[in-house]
Amino acid sequence: MTTLENIPKNTLVNLQSEYRKTQIQDILDQLDRDLIGLIPVKTRIREIAALLLVDRLRKSLGLSSSNPGLHMSFTGSPGTGKTTVATKMADILYKLQYINKGHLLTVTRDDLVGQYIGHTAPKTKEVLKQAMGGVLFIDEAYYLYKPDNERDYGAESIEILLQVMENQRKDLVVIFAGYKEKMDKFYESNPGLSSRVTNHVNFPDFTPEELLLIGKLMLEDKQYIISEESEIVILEYINRRMQQPLFANARSIRNAIDRARMRQANRIFASGNKVLTKADLVSILPDDFLQSRLFTEI
């Protein structure tokens, strides 16, 4: 047994050197570049990464390890970056040698639960086999549990997941994701599952200003430009869209931009101009958004 007394007093660990070796900072920097806002999420991911690094350093000195739980819960609305962050989390776990492959497998209930007796176990086990060595990301995980349906086989899938999460913790990390309120009820209904999920990360909705910036970055990535007048219209579009059903944050903004690009193309085609300038091809005008039903159906 290793004790503080039998560890040489001159044993030194260069934290910064070890941190640089893992290349974790590169992953965190990329997360900052890829995602606007989400400061609480980024802070939580840094905290988890720091805990895992220190745990690894303790092991290297022969100190006892708390075996930090790695299974996680990502809660929040659609389009808030949960899958993107899960991918980066898989990279961090791989760099710190907590998983040996580092890939992310994203699934839903349909990938895990069968339609008849004897169908669920093979489906779930096949998914787990594919995910081994990496991270299994289960989106809308609350759909796995349907207590009001006696003929539902989701409970069987959960039982298999629990066994693997407990017995093969060194081979697989599971991230459950979905709306916070529904996920809270899901965990309340499955105390065995809740006890195995130690890291809970909540993803806040983006503000209108953050969504505008996200939209601008999406347009820049596709080599489009917008004027200040267009920005004002887009911000108004965002405020109106946020009040509509099925709003999905960045996902909804991406869809709106795709429709604006379609209107721009149709506008150019309908103009009848035989000669087009580069500016014609890259400019998104206010009217390309103002033709949305959010402005026309008032």
Overview of the structural elements:
This is Putative rubisco expression protein. Residues 68-207 form the AAA+ ATPase domain. One of its GO terms (molecular function) is ATP hydrolysis activity. It comes from Porphyridium sordidum. This protein is of the alpha/beta class and 298 residues long. It folds into 2 domains: 69-203, Rossmann fold; 208-296, Helicase, Ruva Protein, domain 3, CATH 1.10.8. 55% of the residues lie in helices and 9% in strands. It is built from 15 helices and 7 strands. The strands form 2 sheets. Strands 2-3-4-1-5 form a 5-stranded parallel β-sheet, with helices on both faces. It has a two-stranded parallel sheet with strand order 6-7. Helix 7 (154-167) links the parallel strand 3 (135-138) and strand 4 (173-178). The longest helix is centred in the last third of the chain and has 23 residues, at 249-271. The termini are far apart.
Features:
alpha/beta; Rossmann fold; Helicase, Ruva Protein, domain 3; 2 domains; globular; AAA+_ATPase; Putative rubisco expression protein; plastid
Q: Secondary structure elements and their pairing?
A:
Elements: H1 15-22, H2 24-34, H3 39-60, E1 72-76, H4 82-95, E2 104-107, H5 109-112, H6 120-131, E3 135-138, H7 154-167, E4 173-178, H8 180-189, H9 191-194, E5 199-203, H10 208-221, E6 225-226, H11 228-241, H12 249-271, H13 278-282, E7 283-284, H14 287-290, H15 293-296
Parallel strand pairs: 1-4, 1-5, 2-3, 3-4, 6-7
Helix pairs in contact: 2-3, 2-4, 6-7, 10-11, 10-12
| Rg measurement, Å | 24 Å
What structural class is derived from the secondary structure elements? Answer: alpha/beta
**CA-to-CA gap between the ends?**
74 Å
Approximately how much helix is present in the residues?
40-55%
CATH superfamily placement of the largest domain: P-loop containing nucleotide triphosphate hydrolases
Number of strands: 7
Architecture of the largest domain, CATH level 2?
3-Layer(aba) Sandwich
Q: Give the tally of structural domains.
A: 2
CATH domain class name of the largest domain? Alpha Beta
Note the main sheet: 5 strands, parallel
- What is the oligomeric state here? single chain
> Number of DSSP helices?
15
Shape, principal axes of CA atoms: globular
Mean pLDDT: 89
Secondary-structure element string: HHHEHEHHEHEHHEHEHHHEHH
Catalogue the unreliable spans.
1-5
Keywords: ATP-binding, Chloroplast, Nucleotide-binding, Plastid
Organism: Porphyridium sordidum (Red alga)
Protein name: Putative rubisco expression protein
GO molecular function, one term: ATP hydrolysis activity
